[in-house]
Amino acid sequence: MAINWRTDYAIRLMCEVASLGEGARDTVRRTAESTLVPYDYARTIARDLVSAGLLASRRGVGGGIELARPAAEITILDIFNAMGEPATISLCTVDPTVCSRSASCSIHHDVWQDLDGMIRDYLASKTLAATVRAGGSFEVPTLV
Predict the structure, then answer these.
(1) pLDDT one-digit tens code per residue, 102-137
(2) CA 88, CA 84: separation in Å to the nearest integer?
(3) Bridge partners of 28?
(4) Three-state SS across the chain?
């Protein structure tokens, strides 16, 4: 399973906003700069996160982005869903029409679907609060 850049950027942005503390807000520009997310991507991703109810946005002086609900109530799976990225190991579990054998394939039914469930359960168990707490201060990972 490879996580796409949009989801990676969204997780970075959400962790950074969560690390500011409950009720704190910052601009998209500063959040993008501190997480090394290109500003144009950050603006688009922030809009998607607002639409999904994960971020709240305020305009004007003192405006910016903040968590729409407590970090302990937001999971990494929520961020995947907001970005429209399925948490899956195989395309056939998302779209069975990708493979003509999906209906009768034992790997599809006995392995991939079970593994997808485990991935979703794992991501749903990781809250934004716990993720930020575990990492201390947010650090941008080095991607190859």
Answers:
(1) 778 888 778 888 898 999 999 999 999 999 988 744
(2) 12
(3) none
(4) CCCCHHHHHHHHHHHHHHHCCCCCCECHHHHHHHHCCCHHHHHHHHHHHHHCCCEEEECCCCCEEEECCCHHHCEHHHHHHHCCCCCCCCHHHHCHHHCCCCCCCHHHHHHHHHHHHHHHHHHHHCEHHHHHHHHCCCCCCCCC
Residue 14 to residue 19: CA distance in whole angstroms: 9
- String of b and e for 93-107 (b: at least 16 CB within 10 Å)? beeeeeeeebeeeee
Query: Using one digit for the tens of pLDDT, what is the confidence trace for 55-81?
Result: 999 888 878 999 999 999 999 999 999
Q: Are 95 and 45 in contact (CB under 8 A)?
A: no
Q: Which residues pair with 57 in a beta bridge?
A: 65
Q: How many residues does the chain have?
A: 144
Across 35-59, average pLDDT: 95
Q: Yes or no: say if 19 and 138 are a contact pair by the CB < 8 Å rule.
A: yes
Q: In the chain, what are the domains?
A: 5-133 (1.10.10.10)
Q: What is the pLDDT of residues 87-100, one digit of tens each?
A: 888 877 777 788 88
